[in-house]
Amino acid sequence: MAVRLTGRRSRPSPDAMTLSEHLGELRRRLVVALVAFVVAASLAAVFYNQMLSVLQHPYCTVSPGHCQFYVTQPLDPLSLRVKMAAFGGLVLASPIVLWEVWRFITPGLRPNEKRYAVPFVVASVLLFVGGCATAYGIFPHALAFLKAAGGPSLREILSPTSYLSLILLMMLLFGLTFEFPVVLVALELARVLSPATLLRHWRWAVIIITIVAGVFTPSSDPFSMLALAVPLVVFYFVSILIGKLFGR
User: Fold this and answer.
1) What total of structural domains would you count in the chain?
2) What is the pLDDT of residues 95-108, one digit of tens each?
3) What is the C-alpha separation between 151 and 123, in angstroms, rounded?
4) Nearest to 231 by CA among 201, 206, 204
5) How many angstroms separate the CA atoms of 235 and 238, rounded?
C-alpha cells in the first residue's frame, strides 16, 4: 500500500525581503540620508561666520585680545568653509541619518524590539551632541596646556585651518565615542553580550578605555584624556545597569 507523504512548505513571512529588495531599501535610505546631509551642510555654510565665532571662543578665552587667525594659503578660506559646512551638516543631519539607519534594520527585529527604535535614536543624538559639547568645554584647558608646554618664549600665530581642524576633530571624536553606551545596550538586547559578562570584565574594560582615550585624543593633553575616559567608564557601568533592567 503506497503512502503519499505531503510535506508542507513554510510560508515566508510577510516582512521577508529578497536581496534585491534589501539593496533597493538600502539605496533609498542612503539617498534620504545624503539629501539631509547636503541640505544641512548648505544651511551650515550660510551661517559660517556665526559658527566660526563660536568655535573661535575657546581660543579667545586662552589668549584674550590676541585671538586673530592668519591664513597663509589662498585656498585656506575656501577649505575652511567646506570643512565647517561638512561638520555642521553632520551634526544637523544626525537625527535623520540615525533614523534612516534604524528604519533599515527594523524589518530584521522582532516586534518587541522595534519599540526601542525611537529611544535609541533620541539617545544617540543626545549623546553625540553631549560629546561635542564636552569637547568644546574642555578645549580651552587643552589649549592652555599646549601653550604652556611651549614655554613663555613662544608667540602664537594660529592658522584657522589647523586650529579648526583640531577642535572639529576633537568634537567629532568625542561625539562618536559617546555613542559607546548605545552600542553596548544594543549588543545586550541582541544577546551578543550579557550584563554579567560586562560586569565580570570591568577591570579590563577600564584599562582598555584609558588606553584608547590616551591614544586617540587628538590634543594629547591630560585634561582631554580624562574628559574622554571618565564618561566612557561611567557609560560602561550605566550600560550594565540598563541591560539588567531590560532583561527584567
Assistant:
1) 1
2) 888 888 877 776 66
3) 42
4) 206
5) 5
